[in-house]
Amino acid sequence: LFLLFFSTHEELKTLDVDDVFFSTPEDIAARALKPQGGVNFIRTFKKQTEDQAVNLPPNLPELVQNASYVQSPDHLVWRYFYDLKGSAEYPFPGGVFQWARYRINGTGLNETEKIFSESLNKHENTLTLATLRIFSNGLGQPHFHFNANEMGYVISGCGKVGVVASDITANFNIDIGDVIFFPVGSQHYIKSVCDEDLLLILAYSTGSQLETLRMNDYFHKTADHILAQLFFKEQNEFKKIPIP
Fold first, then answer.
1. Cα 99 to Cα 186: distance, rounded to the nearest angstrom
2. Where is the signal peptide (predicted)?
């Protein structure tokens, strides 16, 4: 079972090998592939009624005798593969975050992570992927991303989500199999409300280092006298908010 994310804001367009093949004239395919039997061999291919991108033939064991392949060298594998489950954990009050990410200059990354990070940055409209585990009754505090849309899929648990965008505020429940979306610049939070942990896979659409600002950060980075004016509250009251 695979969970796939695609970095496009337009309708996804895909061409499968069989679709392209059957859209190519027989004589052109024969001249390109040069099979034994020529065009007569090409004519033995029959287009299936079902899309073969999602359906396997019922007689697959009869058709495939050898499915082995040669593993590519590590310096190539690490450009396209990242062991997220085995990567470093980043704990926060209420949960744990693991991340296949891009970092400027590879800061804080090991050698394999640097190769993967450099590969991410070479491609336009790339994605970075993460897992977010929020412990029971834990909170992923309100925050927003300056440079990325965020999409998530719920693996286990259940929770509550809030989104504050420029023109709307929304709060709703999430459960296993649900997909959530946070547009760039929208503040959002996720809270676990089940006895078990809430586990999500998250994707961020950015080809650069993800830029995030959390509620406790922007409260502390705003002068107390400004907060006093905004909230009609005595300036020294904001000293009660602990520094992270």
1. 21
2. none
Instruction: Tell me the C-alpha distance between 42 and 226, whole Å.
Output: 75
The 3-state DSSP class for residue 228 equals helix
Backbone angles phi, psi at 66, to 5 degrees: -145, 110
b/e map of 38-72 (b: 16 or more CB within 10 Å)? eeeebeeeeeeeeeeeeeeeeeeeeeeeeeeeeee
The strand pair at 159-164 and 150-156 is best described as unpaired
Q: DSSP for 69-128, please give it.
A: -PPPPHHHHHHH---STTS--EEETTEEEEEE---GGGTT--HHHHHHHHHHHTSTT--E
Distances (CA, A) of 152 to 4, 103, 120, 203: 11, 21, 19, 6
Domain ranges in the chain? 17-66, 76-210
Q: Dihedral of CA 61/66/68/70: which sign?
A: negative
Digit-coded pLDDT (tens) for 86-139? 899 999 999 999 999 899 988 889 999 999 999 999 998 899 999 999 999 999
Task: Provide the whole-model pTM.
Answer: 0.87
Domain over 76-210 is classified CATH 2.60.120.10: yes
Please state, in angstroms and rounded to a whole number, the distance separating the CA atoms of residues 220 and 92.
18
What is the Cα–Cα distance from 94 to 192, expressed in whole angstroms?
A: 9
CA angle 234, 237, 242 (to 5 degrees): 155
